[in-house]
């Protein structure tokens, strides 16, 4: 294995030498998309050669076919892994940052057996019982975070392909809900569907423009800004189902 590949496992090696055995990585997919769910994942890879997943890298650096291959290897080799999906309604109701951190926290808590150290990609994840560290570009420098990024990305891409069958006019199978020229043109032409995030300025603008052309639509649900949710709020707890996929 070349030096660059060895570096992907160096951080976990350092933590194991300090006495931490089960090191989890956590990451999300879909944070920047304007349609579809947010998907968070967590993963603990085994020590030694079995934890050296062939082809593992930041999911954004892998083509779709390779991501699927790496996903299968991660699922087969991982000591524990979990995936949590948060639907669009909750993203609009609570705000992206609050929901993102909660989803990452839920993904870590769903691991069985649980980890004794957690690495996250970029954002610190509050409320964990284990010591944790937010790592800049963690999906490129820590193998467990890269594994989580692949789990989240492949799971979300599969969801977006399914949504493409329900809403073929938007091309979700190609751009996966991100703001591409093709997606923007479809939004302008058709207005948003139920899988679009109304908090996004471009989506709200398309909704209003489409309503002006075709007639009034029902009011959007009330939204909370990112930040602490008031006690007793009906959106105070995530209501998405238990992790979509969970092995070991």
Radius of gyration: 19 Å
User: Percentage of helical residues?
Assistant: 40-55%
Instruction: Quote the average pLDDT.
Output: 87
Spans where pLDDT lies below 50 across 5 or more residues? 217-248
Beta-strand residue fraction: 5-15%
By secondary-structure content and strand pairing, the structural class works out as alpha/beta
What coarse outline follows from CA principal-axis ratios?
elongated
Spatial order of the strands forming the largest sheet? 5-4-1-2-3-6
Number of contiguous helices? 10
Order of helices and strands: HHEEHEHHEEHHHHHE
List keywords for this structure.
six-stranded mixed sheet; 248 residues; alpha/beta; 6 strands; single chain; elongated
Report what the structure shows.
With 248 residues, the protein is an alpha/beta fold. It is 42% helix and 13% strand. A six-stranded mixed sheet has the order 5-4-1-2-3-6, sandwiched between helices. A hairpin with an 8-residue loop joins strand 1 (23-29) and strand 2 (38-44). Helix 9 (181-190) runs parallel beside helix 10 (201-214). The protein is elongated.
């Amino acid at each position: 294995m070349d030096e660059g590949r060895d570096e992907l496992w160096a951080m976990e090696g350092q933590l194991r030498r300090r006495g931490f055995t089960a090191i989890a990585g956590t990451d999300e997919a879909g944070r920047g998309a304007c349609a579809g769910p947010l998907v968070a994942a967590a993963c603990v890879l085994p020590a030694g050669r079995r934890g050296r997943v062939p082809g593992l890298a930041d999911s954004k650096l892998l083509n779709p076919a390779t991501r699927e291959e790496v996903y299968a290897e991660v699922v087969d080799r991982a000591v524990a892994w979990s995936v949590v999906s948060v639907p669009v309604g909750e993203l609009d109701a609570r705000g992206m940052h609050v929901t993102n951190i909660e989803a990452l926290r839920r993904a870590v808590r769903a691991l069985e057996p649980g980890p004794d150290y957690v690495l996250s990609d970029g954002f610190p994840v509050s409320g964990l019982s284990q010591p944790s560290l937010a790592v800049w570009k963690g999906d490129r420098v820590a193998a467990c975070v890269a594994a989580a990024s692949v789990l989240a990305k492949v799971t979300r891409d599969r969801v977006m392909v399914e949504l493409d069958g329900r809403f073929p006019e938007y091309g979700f199978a190609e751009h996966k809900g991100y703001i591409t020229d093709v997606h923007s043109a479809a939004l302008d032409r058709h207005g948003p569907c139920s899988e679009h995030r109304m908090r996004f300025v471009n989506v709200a603008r398309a909704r209003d423009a489409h309503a002006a052309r075709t007639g009034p639509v029902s009011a959007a649900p009330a939204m909370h800004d990112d930040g602490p949710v008031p006690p007793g709020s009906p959106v105070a707890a995530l209501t998405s189902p238990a992790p979509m996929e969970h092995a070991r």
